[in-house]
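Annotated sample (chain length 395).
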Amino acid sequence: MVFAEDWFGKGEVIVGEKNELYQIRVLAEPRAEGSNWVYKCETMGGLLSGVPAAEVAAGKRFSYEFAPVESSRSKGVGAVRYTTPTAMRNEWTTIRLKERVPGNMLNRKLEVPITMKDTNNKNVESTMWMHYVEMKVEETFSEYKCNAIMYGKSNRNSNGEYLNYGESGDVIKTGDGIRAQMEVANVQYYNDFDIKLLEDALLELSASKLDLYNKDERTFVFKTGERGLVKFNKAVKDMVSGWYPTGMLNASVNNPGVISKSGSKIHDNALSAGFQFTEYKAPNNITIRVESDPLYDDLVRNKIMHPEGGPAMSYRFDILYIGTMDQPNIQIAKIKNQDEMRSYRWGIRNPYTGAMGNPYMSFEEDEAEFHRFTQLGVFILDPTRTMSIIPSILG
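Output written by the structure step:
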């Protein structure tokens, strides 16, 4: 049976218009199909002839009665209905992490101590293995959250269906991260990088849209990797190379830091020379700046290598915010009054505290468990205020 809402629970008896004549039992939790929910059902009682088609036709209204179970060895059924308290244009992503530790890990020591913060926010050192385990749990949980926020992809298909199911049998939903939401806006791919590429893209975004005389509105900050910084530096040097004879880059007049004294045993008058461009002032009051982000240089996640060396992602340039707004364009979303959850449970021995013989064991294994749980999302108010310049190898 197909309904427009996820309203009925597994094991419930539901009835239509002839509610005392034709009763139907829900056999399983529903699955999503587009904007509808599909229930697997059976007739209740001795209805050998089944239910007439007219009683289950589209538009018929149904309600729940009760959730009957067997008299012994029964399992939980039924459901409680609530009005959804939150809504998002994107989708909430629910993240969990579990780590299990044997019960005999009490007093296991580390060769090298780890530094932690105490309740007074002071650094303290610990050599306990369990503290190290908890630190690694927090580290992994933090990576989970960061990856979901930046790289998450919605698992809803074009029909509005979610086809991934968890161990409980309920559907798994994940929302789009920052990168996925940026894809619908200003994206360009390049083979050869130069300043004109950036100028043309930013002029197109600025003309008649951003105030020509407002320098703040026309200042653009690109996030990139270390290879991108090198690309930008070379592109600016190529652009201004024709200005050298005019003395604009004369080290002794305009930029004394280009050549400076250097400590070396090779020569008494050793010198150091060099500079790096991190900003370029383009026509029409446009200022282009670059900043490094270590995410672009992560060799573990970024597996496609660039022909010029390093991960191809390191050559990507992203603007996360164009113009000025009365509130941040990209925002993290969380459910009000629902913070991240951290739980710990143990069996017969507690490797954290040394307690023995737990009289209220929640499981029979001689071990302990760390649990982490959160629900979060991210949204971009206006994706057209973002921009991505991507090497074509990632296209």
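Annotation: The chain has a mean pLDDT of 84.
Annotation: The chain is about 15% helix and 25% strand.
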